[in-house]
Amino acid sequence: MSTYNEQARPRVTTSRIQAMKQSGEKIACITAYDYSMARLVDAAGIDLILVGDSAANVMMGYDTTLPITLDDMITFAKGTVRGVSSAMVIVDLPFGTYQGCPEEALHSAVRIMKETGAAGVKMEGGAEIAESVRRVLSAGIPVCAHLGLTPQSVNKFGGYGVRAKGDAEAQRLIDDALLLQELGCFAVVLEKIPQELAARVTETLAIPTIGIGAGSVTDGQILVLQDMLGMNPGFKPKFMRLFGQIGDAVASAVGNYVQEVKAVTFPSDTEHY
Ligand code: KIV
Description:
alpha/beta; 8 strands; binds 3-methyl-2-oxobutanoic acid
């Protein structure tokens, strides 16, 4: 029998996410990439789980998110969805699977929806991907937009610094956010932009904003699970808070196990058949 809280919360949908913006209840979002972690974060009451392409970094060890494939994302998403009973699960469309043409975007999004059972997708970019966003939305697939620091464009930006500090880029971001809302996106992630700009976007939009490194003013927050759990030693950007020290806990538990195996104190006399 499961030790988790199985008291069913109602399934979180796009309507619930929208209602949270209207009522002022903050939307708590997190990334997850596998069944075991998804079960834990869902039971902890998270509203939305993103199977992010940050899996390229924290699950596969790549320096950027560019190498992860659609098949990789589908594998991570399948396990995640199976672990969740209430949270809304959305999945990143990875680099190179939607920017080129709307038909490819639709094909990629449909594969994610059919093969994983997720409830929507996330796509990075503004006006330049409008046709792809429109095509995915036309199939009834919820799309979460992503503006500001969009890691799939790291080579264009030349790094992971704060975006939209200047007036021109800030105005472009507001225009993009309005366009994506008009197209029908259900939410927009704002990554690493000044809090003042995040506040302007959040006040301007009727759809929710989900911030990461955008201050407390957005309608919700998202963090990468491994980062906030202390499983990614050395990664400590200014916006990130450690909510746990799971990395240390794992190292200590496995260290103890190694010692006990070597000392033949595990298994004990009672730990066998
Ligand atoms: O891939 C990801 O984890 C993300 C979040 C950081 C928003 O896009």
